[in-house]
Design goal:
alpha+beta, 5-stranded antiparallel sheet, about 30% helix, about 25% strand, globular
Length: about 775
């Protein structure tokens, strides 16, 4: 049973219900953006009845396989990509008189686990009585270090309660046995679940030249390698020790003299390197990892833990959101922020998977989710991480250029809809490649990062090139259509709503492309004046013609945005109102989500939305729509939206707040904030919903605090729920950090670091030098 009602930084599991085991494994995942390891039980490897996912993942480490089409065509994605489970270092158990502990032997009582969000620590304790009556108390701590991103550590303490004798302990690092995982979702295929044909996706090989043996882990097809290793310290009266190393793994066992009420302790340190190309020299990677392991082993677990706590303290100092008036909600928000932080790649070569590093749902792919739902959290709380996430997009720019050429676009780029290494791997193009809006989404992320940070160096070395190349794509992809008054149109696209595919002039896509075009022209011309030397180099690199920016600007200004004059409604696309509305009254609850029960060609014939689309466009650019227009569109699209996507509710909640529907806003927000804790989508077993977690932060800061960035200027229009006595959070803006505190009708801004900043609140211009209350 999961208890989320006590301390606001603690998630507790009382007892152990096998029906909720996978769900809680997801919740109790620990990670640091480099590695993630699910909250599986340490002894699962010797439990014959354990059917769950013990997965440990390395961000960006994937296997590929050819996509088989019954009927292929030119330009289809060629290869699938699936994040790999790497060797599991959590495998640890003990034996009394030859009887190995697991939950199916002897008697386990007082079993409980706690995820300490504040410290980034997973704690577990239980009592166990062997079949011969020997009793022990066990305490376990697990952490994945932020200070040393390669390192996972487990401290395992066993205390005999009623005997003196001998206890054996084993710890191993070996590849997880996938055969125990049977996660079929009934008779229907679920596209949200990973392709699990990966038993043979990696091979392990022992490497023994360093002082500690290592495993070289190699994928069969994607030509990637990584190195992992393990070492331990043991506190107790050692009788014997056994070590075995082979291509199957690293295996250690100790036999220890046990004394009544005297604790035996083992601390296990497991290290995982970054991934690298197959041709890279193994030796240096292994030696570097061993040196890292020896360093943390020498410093000891307590110091490693203290340094980890320090990084967690810094995270919460920058990123915490305080809510007074709802303890469950407070815990839910902190849980979401904790997992967002764990999910984010920080190397410039990795990003955020849809499930973070908590599972292999969606096969570990990166989507538009990052820029549109998660990046804002990092922009305003951890700008260096935000930059690293955008640099990943820059790192795959050449592959995006190649993809654009496959679609007959001679200039510019087309970013992949779903990917790990930058190649498109969406096998269903109507809901994949056709979502061309991802180009504009990434450009939007670049522009928002620049507006909030003023990071000129990033723009000149990476950001501006992304904006230019995405703008170039739209100019070639679109057309001036005479029947549309010679306005610039984008035909044959799919917007965010995946229940409406391959349409002309999706409103969201057209509006986002318009902003991409106009902002690229504006920022390019601005830098041409302020940094002419750097721009000359960019002109030469990209072969930019003298008046090319005017072409982008014209296309943006002439962009067609569909609108129904008769009903005064924004049209989701040209065909929006030419279809019957889905018969919701005759669709029972068990038929949702629709994508699991109806053929796409059935869904596409109707007005029915999977998620926010036009409403999202209006939320992103609120000053371009009247309040009356937002209300009309919200009322219309809310009626035909199923929210089958976890990305939907936060958007409708924020728009409800924007138009004064406070009760609806709060209802949507609660669904957003507690989605994974309550398994609201019914598939948290496969991993958290990272974008929704970003949406919960957006709901608080954009929705209830009313944060907006319009033409590079920050503003607030607060509308905090009356049931909360306080909402407080901190933001970074143009190099300074300030705190926002909303208490009833009182609003306080406090400069925490940096130089004075200027913004507005409810139309009042504020020049913040220290502290201001309104």
């Amino acid at each position: 049973m999961l208890d989320a009602s006590t301390e606001n930084f603690q998630i507790h599991e009382i007892g152990l219900d096998k029906e909720t085991l996978e769900h809680n494994e997801t919740l109790f995942t620990l990670g640091n953006g480099h590695i993630g390891t699910r909250g599986s039980l340490e002894e699962a490897f010797i439990d014959p009845y354990y059917k769950s996912n013990e997965g440990t993942y390395l961000n960006g480490f994937f296997e590929s396989a050819p996509i088989t089409y019954g009927e292929a065509a030119y330009g289809y994605a060629k290869n699938n990509q699936t994040i790999c489970r790497i060797p599991n270092g959590k495998q640890l158990s003990f034996a009394i008189e030859g009887e190995w502990f697991n939950l199916n032997t002897g008697e386990t009582t007082n079993h409980q686990r706690s995820l300490d969000l504040k410290k980034g620590l997973l704690l577990r304790s239980f009592d166990w009585k062997s079949t011969s009556g020997k009793e022990v108390h066990v305490e376990i701590e697990r952490l994945v270090s932020y200070r040393y991103p390669e390192i996972m550590a487990i401290q395992y303490q066993i205390t005999p309660l009623n005997f003196d004798g001998v206890i054996a302990i084993k710890n191993q690092l070996s590849q997880e046995t996938i055969k125990n995982i049977e996660q079929g979702k009934g008779e229907l295929e679920d596209p949200r679940v990973a392709n699990r044909q990966e038993e043979a996706s990696v091979k392990t090989q022992i490497y023994s030249e360093a002082s500690i043996p290592s495993l070289i882990v190699t994928t069969n097809e994607s030509n990637l390698r990584m190195v992992c290793s393990q070492t331990q310290t043991v506190v107790g009266e050692l009788i014997d020790e056994y070590k075995q190393v082979s291509d199957e793994g690293l295996f250690s066992e100790w036999v220890i003299e046990a004394n009544l009420k005297k604790s035996i302790e083992i601390t296990s340190y497991t290290g995982y390197t970054s991934f690298y190309e197959l041709e890279t020299e193994n030796r240096q990677m292994a030696f570097n990892l061993v040196a890292q392991l020896q360093q943390v082993k020498t410093m000891g677990y307590n110091r490693l833990k203290a340094e980890h706590f320090s990084t967690m303290f810094n995270f919460w100092q920058a990123s915490d959101v305080e809510i007074q008036g709802d303890n469950q909600l407070q815990k839910g928000i902190r849980f979401n922020l904790f997992h967002l932080n764990q999910a984010a790649g920080r190397t410039g070569l990795t990003n955020i998977a849809a499930k973070g590093l908590t599972g292999d749902g969606y096969e570990g792919h990166y989507f538009w989710d990052t820029e549109m739902y998660m990046l804002p959290f990092f922009i305003y709380t951890q700008p260096e991480t935000a930059k690293a996430l955008l640099l990943y997009r820059y790192s795959i720019l050449d592959k995006a250029r190649a993809r654009a050429r496959e679609l007959a676009i001679k200039k510019g780029v087309l970013f992949p809809w779903r990917t790990i290494n930058g190649a498109e791997c969406s096998a269903y193009y109507p809901a994949g490649t056709a979502q061309f809006h991802i180009n504009a989404d990434i450009a939007y992320g670049v522009e928002r990062y620049f507006s909030a940070t003023g990071d000129t160096d990033f723009m000149l070395t990476a950001g501006l090139e992304i904006m230019i190349e995405t703008a170039r794509f739209w100019v070639e992809f679109g057309s001036y259509i005479p029947a549309k008054n010679n306005q610039f149109c984008l035909n044959g696209v799919t917007g965010p709503d995946e229940y409406t595919a391959l349409v002309n002039n999706n409103f969201y896509t057209n509006l986002m492309a318009q902003k991409n075009l106009v902002n690229a022209a504006k920022i390019y011309t601005g830098f041409s004046l302020s940094h002419p030397v750097e721009i000359e180099k960019l002109i030469e690199k990209l072969a930019i013609t003298p008046d090319e920016f005017k072409v982008w600007q014209k296309a943006g200004e002439k962009m067609y945005l569909p609108f129904d004059e008769e009903h005064q409604l924004t049209m989701q696309d040209d065909s929006a109102f030419n279809k019957d509305v889905w018969n919701f009254n005759e669709t029972p609850k068990e038929k949702y989500p629709l994508l699991l029960h109806f053929h796409p060609l059935t869904i596409y014939r109707y007005q029915v939305n999977k998620q926010a689309d036009t409403v999202l466009a209006e939320l992103l650019f609120p000053n371009e729509f009247t309040n009356e227009q937002k209300i009309r569109d919200f009322d219309y699209y809310e009626k035909i939206t199923t929210h089958d996507s976890s990305l939907s509710r936060s958007i409708f909640g924020m728009m409800a707040s924007e138009i004064g529907r406070s009760n609806e806003a709060y209802h949507y927000f609660m669904d957003t904030a507690l989605m994974d804790l309550k398994d609201g989508q019914g598939n948290t077993d496969d991993g958290i919903h990272a974008a929704n977690m970003g949406g919960s932060w957006l709901s608080l800061v954009y929705g209830f605090a009313g944060l907006k960035m319009v033409e590079g200027k920050l503003s607030f229009e607060p509308r905090v729920p009356k049931k909360w006595s306080k909402l407080a959070f901190s933001l970074f803006y143009l190099g300074s950090q300030f705190k926002v505190t909303l208490e009833g009708t009182r609003i306080t801004f406090e400069l925490l670091s940096g130089t004075p900043i200027e913004f507005s609140c409810n139309g009042n211009v504020i020049y913040l030098t220290k502290k201001v209350s309104l």
